[in-house]
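Hi support team,

I'm filing this because I wasn't sure whether my run with S-adenosyl-L-homocysteine finished correctly. The job status page said complete, but I'd like someone to confirm that the output block is well-formed before I use it downstream. Pasting the exact inputs I used:
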Amino acid sequence: MLLTISTTHRPATDLGYLLHKNPARVQDFALNFGTAYVFYPEATDERCTVALALDIDPVGLVRGKGREARTMEQYVNDRPFVASSFFSVALGRVFNSALAGRTETHGELAETEIPLEASMPVLPARAGGDALIERLFAPLGYTVETHPLPLDEKFPEWGASPYFAVTLKATKRLQDFLTHLYVLIPVLDNEKHYWVGDAEVEKLLKRGGDWLAAHPERETITRRYLKYRTSLAREVLARLEPEEGLAEEPRADSAETPEERLEKPLSLNERRYRDVLAVLKDHEVRRVVDVGCGEGRLLRYLLEEKSFTGIVGLDVAHRALEAAAERLRLERMPDRLREKIKLWHGSLTYRDRRLEGFDAATVIEVVEHLDEARLAAFERVLFEFARPPLVVLTTPNVEYNVKFENLPAGRFRHADHRFEWTRAEFAAWAREIARKYAYAVEFRPVGDADETLGAPTQMAVFKK
Ligand code: SAH
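And here is everything the job wrote out:
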């Protein structure tokens, strides 16, 4: 199994500094499935090529597995010859520093986009073939060349194999180039060898964080990388969703790793849904309506909990409901789940009898989208007419906005927000509602609270 990476950036031999591997030496690395060799077939000022060759021990692979697991296929398989997930593991080990963008001597070059070319003489693409290779790499700016390999050159009538010779060219920072290979090569391979668990989620978020969110194939990538374990895949996709309203949010300071930068806004989004979910569960809610459900992010969390027997998402925007249907894969949902969930088109500013009879309503980051006259109508629709025993409502805490460095002073987190409230303003509004409609109300911070500014999101829990 072989991968070569070449550059024509001059002096090309600087590639050795970026990779922390001296072009004059052959190095080997012991891995638990074989040995990785690194060497340079060419190293001139004009062009430098590094090769990563993996010598996989197919018998070693079955060692440690139970006796009944030892079929012939485990000894005789294509693993030693194709670039597969082993390749990612080796890449992670051997080019660890370059993947992390670390270099002692060539910091500027590491940050520079340089012409790079990767060649893999044998890359498996069992499901999706060369079209998938193109779909994975082209959106990231790669020129992709693929040549199908015949099953056997001597017997052309046997047809094509699922393997391709692949060349990828792009002008990129070396770190990004390696990262794309690291994530996408196992995606092409159906036979991922190592156990996919929570650590894999973290790995994918760490390596895929900043570009995966924008990739048109992010669902395929995530699902495949996590080997069709849908709950894990869903978690990653949820964490990749940009925080609603924080589109203009700063990407924090440069001392942070991309992962930390990513986690910040994402964990707030995620924590909001989790906190809402916890309140619903504490109150043993069975039937819940999420008003202003948007693209159905909370609905997805609700669906995962068996305790909810009826889940409705309501929104005024058709487009949002379509996106929700797609996100939830309503069409392909098993009947058992499909019966539990409904998406309704409707407005929160008109009385709607369908909203009556739920155990709870959730109103997540919605009120700030309503202008004042509509807000008054919404209050009556929900608290006077629908009157669920429990209402969980969240909205931004405007005091916290100064912490978003790139958000100009006085600007709201989202262009469509009609207002954003301080904690005192929110509390006054919520207490007035509680008084008028005979509810008790409690307040809870969501996200890491700042001592003086409070938490980024504020939550009110109303109980009848
Ligand atoms: N709750 C979602 C979406 C928040 S964005 C989430 O947390 O991701 C606000 C949503 O409120 C949008 O989808 C918008 O279409 C919806 N909305 C705004 N005014 C509305 C109204 N009058 N009736 C129903 N939904 C409304």
